[in-house]
C-alpha cells in the first residue's frame, strides 16, 4: 500500500497522484526487466553445452543490471547482485528467479519504505525544477 502520509504533509493531491503514477510505472517496468533477466538466465539451458559457457558471460551482466535497477535500495541492490551472480554461476540453479525475488522484496514486502524514498527524491527534483524556473522568469 502506498504511503498515505504523503498527503498529510501538505503535498497537494495533484503532486501525490503524479508521484504515485511515476512510482507505479517505475515499479512495473522493473518487474518486466526482472522477469526478462530471469528468463534469459534460464533459456541458456535449452541448448546443450551452451549453458555453462553462457552462464559465465551472463552472470556478471545480470548482476550489474540487478544492482543498477535497485541501486536506490542499496541493501537489496547489493544482495540481489551477489545472489544473482551466484545463481547464474552455480550449476543447476538457473531456475531460481533471483531478479524477480529481489523485486518482490523491494516492491511487495518493502513497498511503503520504497515509495517514501521514491517520493522524497521526486519532491526534491520537483522543487529544484521549480526553483530554477522561478529564477529565470
Could you explain the architecture of this structure?
The chain has 137 residues and is mostly helical. It has one domain (4-136). The chain is built from 6 helices and no strands. It has helices at residues 5-8, 13-43, 50-69, 74-89, 98-107, 111-135. Helix 4 packs antiparallel against helix 5. The termini are far apart. 23% of the residues are buried.
| Helical coverage, percent range | over 70%
Describe the global form.
Answer: elongated
Q: Approximately how much beta-strand content do the residues carry?
A: under 5%
- By secondary-structure content and strand pairing, the structural class works out as mainly alpha
Number of folding domains? 1
In oligomeric terms, what are we looking at? Answer: single chain
Please state the CA-atom Rg, rounded to the nearest Å: 19 Å
| Number of distinct helices | 6
Amino acid at each position: 500500500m502506498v504511503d498515505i502520509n504523503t498527503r498529510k504533509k501538505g503535498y497537494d493531491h495533484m503532486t501525490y497522484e503524479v508521484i504515485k503514477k511515476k512510482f507505479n510505472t517505475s515499479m512495473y517496468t522493473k518487474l518486466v526487466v526482472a522477469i526478462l533477466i530471469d528468463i534469459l538466465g534460464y533459456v541458456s539451458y535449452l541448448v546443450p553445452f551452451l549453458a555453462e559457457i553462457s552462464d559465465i558471460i551472463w552472470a556478471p551482466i545480470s548482476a550489474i543490471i540487478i544492482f543498477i535497477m535497485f541501486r536506490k535500495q542499496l541493501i537489496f541492490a547489493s544482495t540481489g547482485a551477489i545472489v544473482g551472480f551466484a545463481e547464474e554461476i552455480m550449476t543447476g540453479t538457473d531456475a531460481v528467479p533471483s531478479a524477480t525475488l529481489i523485486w518482490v522484496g523491494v516492491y511487495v514486502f518493502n513497498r511503503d519504505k520504497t515509495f517514501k524514498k521514491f517520493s522524497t527524491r521526486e519532491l526534491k527534483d520537483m522543487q529544484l525544477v521549480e526553483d530554477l524556473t522561478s529564477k529565470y522568469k
